[in-house]
Amino acid sequence: MSQPASGPMKAERTALPPHSPLPEYYGEDEARNRYVVDLFDRTAKHYNTIEKLFGNGGLLYRWASLRRAGMRSGMKVLDVATGTAAVARGAARIVGPEGLVVGVDPSSGMLAEAGKVFHGPRLRGVGQALPLRRDAFDFVTMGIALRHVSDLVAAFREYRRVLKPGGRLWILEGHVPRSGLGQRFTRLVWARLVPRMTLLATRSQEAKLLMDYYWDTIDKAARPEAIVAALEEAGLREVRFQKVIPGLCEYRARKPA
Fold it and tell me: What is the spatial distance between Cα 163 and Cα 169, in angstroms, rounded to a whole number?
């Protein structure tokens, strides 16, 4: 006689990657995280040189955008995928000595570079499994790195977990514009000019590879509507996004109070 069922099986949620697979870089999709961390470790010393190609204009924009998003003096901020601390530096200016900015990144090479310009706590970790306690931060930020997490919803649930009730989330991310003209212009800049300029400035084929990979992740990235839906699925509220310039979007959300 068969045993009674113990209850309905809970269906396992399918991961929502930030972009479609790129097997020409890392083969099987399971190897993607290891490939990305290794690539950033090898090219970390060139990253600030690449930023300088754009006049470091992104640093000023990030600072101004964080202020508009509600970041204030005395807040506790977590900067996920902090890289060379482009966002963390702006956040530190805003929160001042009364506040705290913590940087998290899976690449030890990028954390070492960040330490040259940013003197707050730095931890190794990934967005979808943060090594931090819940309800700890007033703000979570992520600047142009969302394409490197393995699961959008899992990462957003982690951001919600570490935010205090009522805390805010700010994300800056690149996309390919919808218009034909915007697509052609973005492809010209990011697929052709930026990798070539990077090679000239750094004399590093690996730095050029990083920017080639950067473009391909943008080209295959999830659309803004899918990212908004993932933020809502993760339990965040007041979710909205706006286009900063063609090809660049800013996302904001809050943890329910």
Answer: 8
